[in-house]
Automatic annotation (TrEMBL):
InterPro entries: Beta_helix (IPR039448), Choice_anch_Q_dom (IPR059226), Para_beta_helix_rpt-2 (IPR022441), PbH1 (IPR006626), Pectin_lyas_fold (IPR012334), Pectin_lyase_fold/virulence (IPR011050). SMART domains: PbH1. Residues 1-10 have a biased composition (Pro residues). The chain crosses the membrane at residues 28-48. This is Right handed beta helix domain-containing protein. SUPFAM superfamilies: Pectin lyase-like. Residues 156-296 form the Right handed beta helix domain. Keywords: Membrane, Transmembrane, Transmembrane helix. Pfam families: Beta_helix. It comes from the Bacteria. Residues 1-21, 52-77, 412-465 are annotated as: Disordered. Residues 61-77, 437-450 have a biased composition (Low complexity). It comes from Pseudonocardia sulfidoxydans NBRC 16205.
């Protein structure tokens, strides 16, 4: 979880540290000595069973991450029908799950159901699917599958959950520890006391088109985030709506790696709306990020917290995002006490109307090759706050006043319809045709192609004339 946010990237000049509210410790540990002992023992067992340390970051090449595990195969086995009114084969999901074999589909009719823990795994090509039948909402709103979650997928693999609505969990909505090859498809997770969707120590995880809202109802006492990836190797979070949660929106942390967070709407969470903490080889692209409300909380934050074993963030792409109206700034860097940041690329983002600053730098020390290019800053309290203490290549950005780097544009752009949220540039306004093709994504956030034979526009959108 992020601590309150001050620190961050910017120019190549020496930096001043801007004091901020004291950082909070991560909250995923259960209070009490017993819980601490359990966690320590689990950690020791995990370390002993792990053959080697996580793979080191790949250097300064742009991240090329496969699209998660892709779509899970459709069921090839039998269908196990569930209806709460007794009109089908099973009354409870748990009873059907106990009979499910690889390739089977547990088809759940509209109604209200108890939570469940998945008792079995599928196999490669023979997934087990838990799916809502058409015709109405399937609400998982009573009882928990375990002490950790209303639905608990821990220790399972090749499982798909589709169309279920998980409501008001006592702890987490959907919880999965030591899992692999899991797909959550079009699920809703709402109003959990703690985090919404939590993956811990997993691999090959996809969360797609989920609606995650109103979680962390305990506020700052809640554990985990709306969507948490904690030490997950290979993940994709795509097309999700993550809004109105009492802590972070989407959080990839503590050695999570090889991930892609794209095409999401993350808004009005306490914030940050998207947080990358002590993780590496991750792409954050094509997201709309707005309204982080917590003190010092930026829309997108890159951080290093003390809870991490490595205190290292590396090889991160922040591209094609629209970042607006966040309380603590647009994009920010945070260091709890010390750590390393390297090979960060912030390219073709539209950063508009944020309090504090568009880019919050603090005195972040960067190493490797770091790029700030083709970003549009407009209407922020100030464009850049703080100075980077290390190497940063900054060029072809649009600032309201003199900014950092070279080949910049200074001015106030005109948008197609800013009050309606349409932040495409009007033809001929500052920023059009003023970017660099070097590292620019081939298409903009709306899918429009950027030109290959001339300079692209600055920002997340490409003007189509």
């Amino acid at each position: 979880m992020p601590a309150a946010g001050n620190p961050p990237p910017g120019s190549t000049q020496a930096t001043q540290v801007v004091a901020g509210p004291p950082p909070r410790r991560p909250r995923w540990l259960v209070p009490g000595v017993i819980a601490l002992v359990v966690v320590l023992v689990a950690g020791i067992l995990w370390w002993v069973s792990t053959p080697s340390s996580p793979q080191q970051p790949t250097g300064n090449a742009p991240v090329a991450v496969p699209s998660g595990v892709g779509p899970a195969p459709t069921g090839t086995g039998k269908t196990l029908d569930v209806a709460a009114d007794g009109s089908k084969q099973f009354r409870t999901i748990a009873d059907a799950a106990a009979q499910a074999k690889p390739g089977d589909t547990v088809l759940i009719q509209p109604g209200s159901y108890e939570g469940f823990r998945a008792p079995a795994s599928g196999t490669d090509g023979q997934w087990i699917t838990y799916e809502a039948a058409p015709g109405g909402a399937v609400e998982i709103n009573g009882g928990d599958g375990s002490d950790n979650g209303r639905i608990d997928l821990s220790d399972r693999s090749f499982v798909r959950v589709a169309g279920l609505s998980v409501q008001k969990a006592d702890r987490f909505g959907i919880y999965a520890e030591d899992t692999s090859n899991i797909v959550l498809d079009k699920v809703e997770v709402a109003d959990s006391r703690h985090g919404g969707i939590v993956f811990l120590n997993g691999s090959k995880i996809t969360v797609q088109y989920a609606n995650v809202h109103g979680n962390n109802s305990l506020g700052t006492d809640a554990e985990m985030e709306a969507i948490s990836m904690d030490n997950v190797d290979g993940f994709e979070i795509v097309g999700c709506t993550v809004t109105g949660n009492g802590e972070e929106g989407i959080d990839a942390k503590y050695e999570s790696r090889n991930g892609r967070i794209h095409g999401n709407t993350a808004s009005d969470n306490r914030g940050p709306n998207i947080y990358i903490d002590s993780a590496y080889d991750i792409v954050v692209s094509d997201n709309k990020v707005s309204g982080a409300s917590g003190p010092g909380k930026t829309g997108i934050m890159l951080g290093v917290e003390d809870y991490s074993d490595t205190r290292r963030l590396a090889n991160i792409d922040i591209v094609n995002n629209v970042v607006t109206g966040n309380n603590g700034g647009g994009i920010g860097f945070f260091t709890e006490s010390d750590g390393t940041f390297s090979d960060v690329r912030i390219v073709n983002n539209t950063i508009v109307g944020n309090e504090n600053a568009g880019l919050v730098l603090g005195n972040t020390n960067l190493s490797g090759t770091n790029v700030l290019r083709n970003n549009l800053f407009a209407g922020n309290e100030q464009d850049v706050k703080g100075r980077s203490g290390s190497t940063l290549t900054a060029d072809h950005n649009l600032f309201a006043a003199a900014g950092v780097g070279t080949d910049n544009v200074t001015g106030v752009p005109e948008f197609v319809d800013q009050p309606a949220g349409d932040l495409r540039l009007e033809p001929g306004t500052p920023g059009t045709g003023a970017g660099s093709p070097d590292g620019a994504p081939p298409a903009d956030i709306a899918g429009a192609a950027r030109p290959q034979d001339k300079a692209p526009d600055i920002g997340a959108y490409q003007t189509v004339e």
